[in-house]
């Protein structure tokens, strides 16, 4: 039987990962598959915190470009992450995975308030905890929220799920000769301005020595593959 190399992980999912073949909203089929993959990892005894983006519904930066005040736009994006978190919670509980949603913006009717000690207690009891509404503050991305929450819950690693196999020296969708890194340092990611996570998130991980694994969510079983230590994606550390 596969044995996990991490005891506690922070999984970062983009909102776009929930869309599937469409360009907007949530695909029940895709979110169901993601839930099944998360369940596989839960069954290994790994404790899982999840941060989901909201880009499938609205992006704060895009709303800002539409003339909406940036602060209001960012709060709209945070609320979008709550919608996604509730959808993922429902998908997980439908397959028997006990799940809690905690929000950095108080919404007691639909989610618990984010309280670090309560989060840790849920994790210790084997519950998946979805950490919604970013940091609760405008001007911070959900990548930064993922880094911050990972530090707070004392995660062993951040798993950054993407649409490509890892981190490349240039955009692999545009350039056929793009080369993927198996390992790369935080500093090189920052110096090269590689767009895998925003610079604040990467710098926070660097300052606290938290590794990031960037991998392709679209390949079945990849979350488990990373958790059991298979050579998948790109590792950012050092």
- How many structural domains in the coordinates? 1
Query: Number of DSSP helices?
Result: 8
Assign the CATH class: Alpha Beta
Q: If you consult CATH, what is the topology?
A: Carbamate kinase
What letter string, H or E per element, gives the SSE order? EHEHHEEHEHEEEEHHEHE
Anisotropy-based shape: globular
Q: Distance between termini?
A: 30 Å
User: What is the correct CATH architecture?
Assistant: 3-Layer(aba) Sandwich
Query: Level of helix content?
Result: 25-40%
Average pLDDT metric: 94
Category by helix and strand content: alpha/beta
Strand percentage: 15-25%
Order of adjacent strands in the largest pleated sheet: 4-3-5-2-1-6-10-11-9
Low-confidence stretches: none
General description of the model:
Strand 1, helix 1 and strand 2 form a beta-alpha-beta unit. The model has no long low-confidence stretch (mean pLDDT 94). This protein has one domain: Acetylglutamate kinase-like (Carbamate kinase, 3-Layer(aba) Sandwich), CATH 3.40.1160.10. The longest helix has 25 residues. It is α/β, with parallel strands linked by helices. The strands form two sheets. Strands 4-3-5-2-1-6-10-11-9 form a nine-stranded mixed beta sheet, with helices on both faces.
């Amino acid at each position: 039987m596969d044995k996990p190399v991490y005891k506690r992980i922070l999984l970062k999912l983009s909102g776009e990962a929930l869309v599937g073949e469409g360009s907007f909203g949530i695909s029940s089929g895709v979110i169901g598959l993601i839930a099944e993959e998360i369940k596989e990892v839960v069954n290994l005894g790994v404790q899982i915190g999840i941060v989901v983006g909201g880009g499938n519904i609205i992006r704060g930066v895009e709303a800002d470009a539409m003339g909406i005040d940036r602060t209001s736009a960012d709060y709209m994006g945070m609320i979008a992450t709550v919608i996604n978190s509730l959808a993922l919670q429902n998908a997980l509980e439908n397959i028997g995975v006990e799940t809690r949603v905690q929000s950095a913006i108080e919404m007691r009717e639909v989610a618990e308030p984010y309280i670090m000690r309560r989060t840790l207690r849920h994790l210790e009891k084997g519950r998946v905890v979805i950490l919604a509404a970013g940091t609760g503050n405008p001007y911070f991305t959900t990548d930064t929220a993922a880094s911050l929450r990972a530090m707070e819950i004392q995660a062993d690693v951040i798993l950054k799920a993407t649409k490509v196999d890892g981190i490349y020296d240039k955009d692999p969708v545009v350039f056929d000769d793009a080369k993927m890194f198996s390992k790369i340092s935080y500093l090189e990611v920052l110096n090269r301005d590689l767009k895998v996570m925003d610079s604040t998130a990467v710098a926070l991980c660097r300052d606290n020595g938290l590794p990031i694994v960037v991998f392709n969510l679209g390949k079945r079983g990849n979350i488990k593959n990373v958790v059991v230590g298979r050579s998948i994606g790109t590792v950012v550390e050092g």
